[in-house]
Design a protein that fits this description.
The complex is a heterodimer of chains A (about 850) and B (about 220).
Chain A (H helix, E strand, L loop, with lengths): L16 H19 L3 H32 L7 E5 L6 H8 L3 E14 L2 E10 L9 E4 L7 E3 L7 E4 L1 H7 L5 E5 L2 E11 L12 E6 L3 H4 L9 E7 L2 H14 L5 E4 H54 L4 H37 L14 H26 L18 H20 L2 H29 L8 H12 L1 H35 L7 E6 L4 H10 L8 E11 L2 E2 L11 H5 L2 E5 L7 E6 L11 E5 H7 L6 E6 L2 E13 L10 E3 L10 E6 L6 H10 L4 E4 H40 L1 H13 L4 H39 L7 H28 L2 H5 L2
Parallel strand pairs in A: 3-9, 6-8, 15-20, 17-19
Antiparallel strand pairs in A: 1-10, 1-11, 2-3, 2-7, 2-10, 4-5, 4-8, 6-9, 7-8, 12-21, 12-22, 13-14, 13-15, 13-18, 13-21, 16-19, 17-20, 18-19
Helix pairs in contact in A: 1-8, 2-7, 2-8, 2-9, 2-18, 7-9, 7-10, 7-18, 8-9, 9-10, 10-11, 11-13, 12-20, 13-18, 13-20, 13-21, 18-21, 19-21, 20-21
Chain B lengths: L1 E12 L2 E13 L4 E6 L5 H8 L7 E6 L2 E2 L5 H11 E4 L11 H11 L5 H11 L15 H14 L4 E5 L7 H18 L2 E5 L3 H5 L3 E6 L2 E4 L3
Parallel strand pairs in B: 3-8, 3-9, 6-7, 7-8
Antiparallel strand pairs in B: 1-2, 1-4, 4-5, 9-10
Helix pairs in contact in B: 3-4, 3-5, 4-5, 5-6
The chains are: A alpha+beta (about 850), B alpha/beta (about 220).
Amino acid sequence: MNGEPAVDGTNIPRATPLVVALRLALRNLVRDLKSGELAVMLLALLLAVASLTAVGFFTSRVNRAVAQQAGGVLAADLRLESARPIADGYVREAERRGLATARLASMPSVVYYGEESTLVALRAASEGYPLRGELRVADRPFGTPRPTRAIPARGEAWADSRLLARLGAALPARIRVGAHELVVTQVLDYRPDQGMGFSDLSTTLLINLADMEATELIQPGSRVRRAELFAGDPAQVAEFGAYLLANKKLGERLETLADASPQIRDSSERSSRFLSLASLVSVLLSAVAVAMAARRYSARHLDQTALMKCMGATQGFVLTQTVAQLVAVAIAVALVGTMLGFAAQAVLSYLLRDLVSGELPAPASDALWLGLVTAIVILVGFALPPLLQLKRVPPARVLRRNLEPPPLRYVFVYGLAIASVLALLLWLLRDAKLVLYVGAGIAVTFIVLALAGAALVRLLAPLRGGVGVAWRYGLANIARRGRDSVVQIIAFGLGLMVLLLLALVRDDLLEEWRASLPVDAPNYFMINIRPDEGEALRAFFADRGLPPTELVPMVRARLAAINGVPSDQVTLPTEDAREWLEREANLTWTATLREDNRLIAGEWWREGDGGGPRVSVEREFAKSLGLKIGDRLTYDAAGEPVEARIASLREVRWDSFQPNFFVVFSPGVLDAITGTLITSVHVQASQRPALVELVRRFPEVTIIDIDALLSQVREVMDKAALAVQYVFLFTLLAGLTVLVASVQATRDERRYESAILRTLGASRRIVFQGIAAEFMALGALAGLLAAAGATVAGYFLAREVFELTYTPGTLIWLTGVAGGAVLVGVAGVLAARSVVTHPPVATLRV
Amino acid sequence: MLAAERLGKQVSSPEGTLAILADVTLEVRRGESVAVVGASGAGKSTLLALLAGLDEPTSGRVWLAGRELTALDEDGRAALRARHVGFVFQSFHLVPALTALENVMLPLELAGRTDARRTALEVLDRVGLAERVGHYPRQLSGGEQQRVAIARAFVAGPDVLFADEPTGNLDAGTGGRIMDLLFGLNAGAGTTLILVTHDRSIAARCGRLVRLDAGRMVNGHA
């Protein structure tokens, strides 16, 4: 056994102890697999691996797409962006240095196709675009794309598939943008600078830059974003980049490749992390099932191990066997689970196909390791501790069966489990601080659930009397198997809770929010109205019976300094806030505080109070920039500096759908600056034809259908929720696995009970009813916990996030309790049916 | 072959410390057959466990095949058992998931012997189970299971055989045949036999009798 030569002197060749241990381990593993001993453990592990790899493969594909497109994400090597017209000097200098140039203009607008209209991101490009990467077009919506080096000719447009679908248009399609008519001749499938966002509300229309003027959409104060693109060899690009940095004006933003991709990558990484965390819940539940199955396996192999020790197996031998079996299981599960995960990932990609633009490449090879890492971590953390007991079983157990291995220290068992969970979190999140937060969150959640579960189980104890024999037997079992019952309730309740939250509570909250809006709340925004057309527009409204509307002035400006410190030198509370300084702001002025605004600090101005130029700032905006009453803000509006003192802070009710602003000036300060007017209005269905006429009369006005916008938002939310629900389906399955593991762990006990009951005269029907009662009650309790948890979460979400009063409906309780009872009832009965069918005499025979 | 000096075993219980065995001294020569008898709870199985190195005494020393068992750790005792000891148990202790042949092969496989299969077949033939080598324990009668267990005990050619109530779960007729087999194989192999039994007729077949009463040896003579 320890490598010494055969004592019988026959010089019979021997294998080394390691080889013997491995051979025996493999044989035992195959036997155990055939006998179904390991079925639950394997199923739980497979679920964990499949769940995590499904998400892992999907996020790897998304991240890879982001990385692949990084090279073309600017459509150039250098990109200079501004909200103002960019001077020609840069282009001349670039051409002098031998760089290629191209120009872009983009703005939100509306496309009209007959009576249909939809919001678009209008993009106008000059010849040469894109300087890096290439466009892809197709001949019909969602058709096979092909690359092209051309751009739309004058009078033509290229629309993306979703735009055509929304308008119900087929190619060629005659559309109108502003005052100009164009023909859509191709489907735009892909632009290199389209970004890899998870949501993109508006669709894209690409036109020739030369057509932009004809649309009449660009006017002083319009919200146009301009870009100059430059490309060349690396040395030219580096030198010209330095030139631009030194010479660009304030408000002009230079992007290089090093700047562009991280932002997009950040956003997709955040979403990836969220999905990974969602799948982690099912991994944790699977780990619990693995622990239960491993405990049972260990208990059932104590006798055999004691016997082998009797015959000379050392502790090291037993340990080698155990570890070898775990490694074999890990490898097998990793292979099969990863394949299942890959198949599952395809479903996820399909569900989210509309949110992720472009085709996803194959996943990176490191996603393949995720399965093996998951399997090993779970086995080490949750299966190894109980299996290590085998090593310590006293060999004297062969003579005295009551001899048990010394109990494992709790610190060791739970410590290893917690360490393995943290290791997995670290692998997924790659951020130690976030891991600690999430780990703490998980711990708190489980403790709260455990307490709630225990309370529910205790509630049952008094119910045992006064019901029929079968029910009493079933309910008594729940109370008797206290800890196991709590584990089952939590395991199943958790998955059900999240599904209820995502499916029912979400709808309830949305309905609640919708109901909180006044009936005649505005359903259309109108922007880009010329100041000199304001009166004509009012008259138009009056003539057609549309409600009188408030035309709100708007001026585009950039925050140039805070308290005299130039904005590029000012210190901010967080660097994220710098975005507020770099982009153009929408400013307005008014004498009176709007109804949907509430003053929370400072004083509102009164006409003639002699207070000088003042602004009122929205609360969150002030917080982001660290502003307070008395601070001075200097804006650069069309080259004119405008300074004002912060006189008050406001809270804005943004969902009133009235025009609202972060920064409001006192009257008289911005009069000299050219801007536009905006308004919002409630238009009844019967009055909609008037809007078509409005667009013809006032072609530069952009009309945004808020209802359509909201349903687009809802569509995006629905899709995202669906994806998360899909991931939590794994959680539900993992919960069921815990149930099966628990049933298996108590199978011998249940068989014995059943045998005694039947020997004493109970029919198989009675025994069956008892089992059904037990599991249905367990399921109902789990459903109760789930409904309670979802309701509480819904209440806090409503109050803290959406500022609504949430009234939970009865549907969530009914669905939770009934759904839990049915699911767990059916699963439990199926898992325990052998208890009823097993002949009592076979159990009772000694 | 086997010696014990002032062997004692105490265990903790709710009532305090319990002396299962106290002050047992004996010596067994190679080839001897010794029956350990006594009332239920006298400490017979405990003595067996200590002599076989399955358990550690609270006091005293044990020697097996010239090595001091009590000076070795658990792995050391396991190694010694692998080389010198065979067991037959009252409840057979066959591995349910293994066939008769595989059960008998087990000690040889554990020792890394490459002739395990051939040797096991030979021994199964000697115990009259050549036709049942591929059967699982649940497919065998009690007597057949014990014969498999005996084959397993002898297959590695042990120097000492420990038997704990080998006929305890068998009817009288079967038990008699099993004991014939056991003694026959024992005599043929020249193995030292330590046998725990209630049965006087079985005890009488042994060369020597050790009687235990409340954990103490009453006599150590035939």
